[in-house]
Amino acid sequence: MSERTELQPGTEAFRRANWALILGGFACFTLLYGTQPILPQFTEAFGISPTMASLTVSAGTLTLSVLLIPLSLLSDRFGRAPLMKAALLGATLFAWLSALAPDYESLVFSRAGVGACIAALPAAAMAYLGEEIAPAARGRVMGMYIAGNALGGMFGRFLSALVTQYSSWHYGLAALALTGVICTLLFWRLLPPARHFQSRSMGPRILWHDIVRIYKDPGLPWLFATAFLIMGAFVSIYNYLGFRLSAPPYNLGPAAIGAIFLLYAVGSASSALAGHLADRYGRSLIMRSMIGTMAVGVLATLNSHLSVIIAGLALFTFGYFATHAIASGWVGFRAGERRGLVSALYLSSYYLGSSFLGSTSGPLWSHFGWSGMVCGLMLCVSLVFGIALYLTRLERLVR
Asked: What secondary structure does DSSP assign to 84-122, as a single string?
């Protein structure tokens, strides 16, 4: 593959690819996490517990995590662009179904459908980026892609909460679906065709050989574990902080709680910044610093003052997105030929963490209050810091 044939910064095709990937990431997080700030409204509407309400988030992330790997194999076999386009179209259709859901079971089913369709996009996007973008610009584009994720998560949560505040959750989810339509149309128009995709066999023997090679790599499995832990902690803190702030003494409404998700803008900035700092000072140093920032942010939320809680959440969000951006780039560095499968394994771990920890952390809140939640979050952050120390030693050995 000649670098001259890859998409170079400054060209029209590069700009189109960059914007398409940003919009794809934006749409994914807008559609997937839009129910998060209105979980208290689901508990009232359906007479269910907070843990059951959180399934409207976890159902989507669970189906996404389960289907990421098989759909990544289709991506390796049939191409990135067709799968990504179909993913956004299907997710938007299920988003409309969720807005029209007549009962809790239908809502959870349609949210699972959103996640199932979205599963085709993230791994294919990471693989497309690795194949089509010039090497010198990949870190920058990855940072912008994750920034799109962050902006989508912020916008979707705020939009659904704001619309729900003045109407109902049905209209809040309809607003998300309309956003999905717009992003899908733009993505289809902007994405340049793939020029460097090479079809990979789906034969069981070759696939098994690739999987064994991936898990024998001394770094990749630990990066997968990092994804599981940081995403689980991230979803947990945002899932249950809404319940804390909607109760006395804060008594915040849906729109005010939704406004808290504007902190995702901090994540957009940190993910773009992290790639630059990692290139300059090294991945391991910046990753450890960002994990430390997450820890400080978690501990700050123990304070009872609303301003301190919000500041702590901002620090945690800043550290989380930076850590995710660095870990994603590290995965791409170690991926080898089977980029789609490696990306899928990383993202599958990422969304499994969202589904599993995002719901199973509920009893910590229900039985032990916010201090119990902080203990669980700090355990996750501490484990990730230990992994970062190992990866640092591994990187030194490579040098």
From this structure: HHHHHHHHHHHHHHHHT--SHHHHHHHHHHHHHHHTTSH
Here the tokens at position 380 are 């996750």
pLDDT digits (tens, 9 = 90+) for 117-176: 999 888 788 778 877 888 777 767 877 888 888 789 888 988 998 999 898 999 999 999
**What is the radius of gyration, based on Cα positions, of the chain?**
20
pTM score, two decimals?
A: 0.74
Cβ proximity of 278 and 328 under 8 Å: no
Asked whether the beta carbons of 26 and 183 are under 8 A apart, the reply is yes
Gap between the Cα atoms of 213 and 394, Å rounded: 17
Nearest-10 Cα torsion for 237, 239, 241, 245: 170
In this structure, which amino acid lies at residue 48?
I
Which DSSP string corresponds to 275-305? HHHHHHH-HHHHHHHHHHHHHHHHHHTTSSS
Cα–Cα distance measured from residue 131 to residue 146, given in angstroms and rounded to the nearest whole number = 17
* Residue 153 to residue 216: CA distance in whole angstroms: 34
Q: For residues 147 and 21, give the distance between their C-alpha atoms in angstroms, rounded to a whole number.
A: 10
Residue (of 266, 247, 265) closest to 257 by Cα position: 247
Structure token pair of residue 96: 């409309």
CA distance 206 to 228: 27
